[in-house]
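Both lines are quoted verbatim for reference:

——
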Amino acid sequence: MRHIISILIENEAGALSRVAGLFSARGYNIESLTVAPTEDPSLSRMTLVTRGTDDIIEQITKQLNKLIDIVKLIDLAETTHVERELMLVKVKTCKESREEIKRLADIFRGKIIDVTNNSYVIEMTGPSDKLDAFVAALDENNIIETVRSGPTGLSRGEKGLHL
């Protein structure tokens, strides 16, 4: 099962390396990882996506909690949450395909953010399965390049990951 682990971590050199090292030392895979400072400049919020059984995820969270840099963490799979992912996709276009690709982007609520004579760059946000569906709807021969942020999320309601 996929788990999104949201972590408050001290914003200092080597903290990310220690988290990544914990995963590699135990043979666990990180599917995606995003890190950015929070409203408190001494803390960063790390969102890590991994897969595993409940026992494996429990082991991961216990090991993460032992790291000195970790202030607090939550497994969003255990709560109701909102998650989004950002994707930029560059597609080949020609005179005949431009309108079709524009309509497809509109259907998926994407935005065309760059236009050249032969390509569009489309920005799209949403759940990962929506982005997967958009990519599947495109002709794979027209996809030049794709970049995705990986999922990030927040728990719903008044509770949050803060001190």
About this structure: The mean pLDDT is 92. The radius of gyration is 19 Å. Residues 54-66 form the longest helix (13 residues).
